[in-house]
UniProtKB/TrEMBL annotation:
Naturally occurring in which organism (per UniProt): Petromyces alliaceus
Official protein name in the record: Alpha/Beta hydrolase protein
SUPFAM superfamilies: alpha/beta-Hydrolases (SSF53474)
Keywords, sorted A to Z: Hydrolase
Alphabetical list of InterPro entries matching this protein: AB_hydrolase_fold, Dienelactn_hydro
GO terms of molecular function: hydrolase activity
Amino acid sequence: MSTMRATHGHSQACCNIPPVVSSGYVPKGSYEQLGGMKTYVTGPEETTRGIVAIFDIFGYFEQTLQGADILATSDHHHKYKVFMPDWFNGSPCPPEWYPPDSVQKQKDLGEWFGEHMPQGPAAALPKYISDLEAANPSITSWGLIGYCWGGKVAEIVTSSEDNPFKIAAACHPAMVDPSGAEKIPVPYILLASGEDPAEDVKRFESNLKVPHHVEIFEDQVHGWMAARADLSNPRVQEEYSRGYKTVLEFFDKHWA
């Protein structure tokens, strides 16, 4: 499958994305304590499929929570229960550190990233899934979606020997490593922005040996499906919706 550029076309939709709320979104889910972490939970109680969502460095932004609600309710064929754990324990990266245009901001940002390497959550996810299964015995199959920093987590965990996921999505992933694709054994979708390194994205795709979909949304910024989505912009809102629709269609087709 060749790397696709953003287009308006779609195959026959398996899902009906609800209207995107540009501001003041009220999340449909609730917060629970699961696996030792505060976790946003959304979706039906009776389902056999669960999705773990790994947010970006900014944590629980309303754009990201709205995305979780979309994933939980918009597929006609499957209903998913979505779990978004707080890997940062209430201390996400402060948005005011961006852009890092001062020595102090650069220092603070470097220290924050040093304390929040994606390898940590990737190693912890198999145990977290076991805890989720104990609390949600009806769920027997798990998918994963990661945004930016969380996209790197998705790459690491799905390429590990302990990968507990049947399918995965990486949305505008950070630190794309083409060599990581070679070890991924499950269907994988990667949606990149126009700001992401296109050559790394293309090489990543060429190394995937599993069913996959890789697409570059040329006119979108890094983060357009999560915290950096300016949903007051009609074009961003359109591509935000299309991004989630693309993920759901891929999951519908390839989640065995």
